[in-house]
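#struct-pred
JK: can someone run the complex with glutathione? inputs below
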Amino acid sequence: MSSAKVIPILYSYYRSSCSWRVRTALALKGIDYEYRPVNLVKTEQYSEEFRQLNPCLQVPALVVDDNQVLVESMAIMEYLEDRYPNQGSRLLPEDPILRAQVRAVALTIVSGIQPLQNLGVMKKVDEICSENKDSANHGLAWSKYWIETKFKLLDKLLAQTTTSTSTSTATNGAKYCVGNQLTMADLCLVPQVNNARRFGVDVEKFPIISSINDYLLASVDAIKQSHPDRQPDCPSK
Ligand SMILES: N[C@@H](CCC(=O)N[C@@H](CS)C(=O)NCC(=O)O)C(=O)O
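RT: done, structure tokens with the ligand placed:
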């Protein structure tokens, strides 16, 4: 029987700031790992092999015990903190207020700043502006394009994280984004689907997203009560 130690595999690109976050977290925790480069400039993130690994087509991705693939740098850092709480440095403070502040600063960067200067995003700005020189609707075309592009990938990611309740290939009948429980992910999904519709995206093209959204809107009271149409500042009220 082989006693070789299995170490995590990090799919990374040297210049990727998102991968760097995870490389630092691994170093702080003192975790050995195998480095597998994905050359983003040579578009290796779109290869069939990588597509299977991360349906979102981005680095970093970390493969851990039992070949579980973890994606999204924040999720990976939180995993490392949860899995190795007492190894190396702590990545989150104990105090709940301080934890929230750490996550607020991190998310401001991770979701508010970095996505706007991503490679694929910059290419699309060049394309939309050169194709529609006279259009007054660059912003609308831009938002619709990105929601559709990312929903296609999110639907694939959800195929891995949801629990299917259907044998149909058109929908997996999922009720929640992850497993059998309402989580923060569902609380993020429903408002994003609402935005998608406002930008003219045909959400039915994304069967798992639609399935979850329909279920949650129909059955979770907290989501119904907090719907935009039921708020005191909604103009149609
Ligand atoms: N929110 C993701 C973003 C990942 C991301 O944007 N990765 C970039 C490198 S830093 C990437 O793979 N870009 C490839 C592309 O745009 O095609 C995370 O934090 O992990």
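RT: quick notes.
The chain has a mean pLDDT of 91.
The longest helix spans residues 138-161.
JK: thanks, will look after standup
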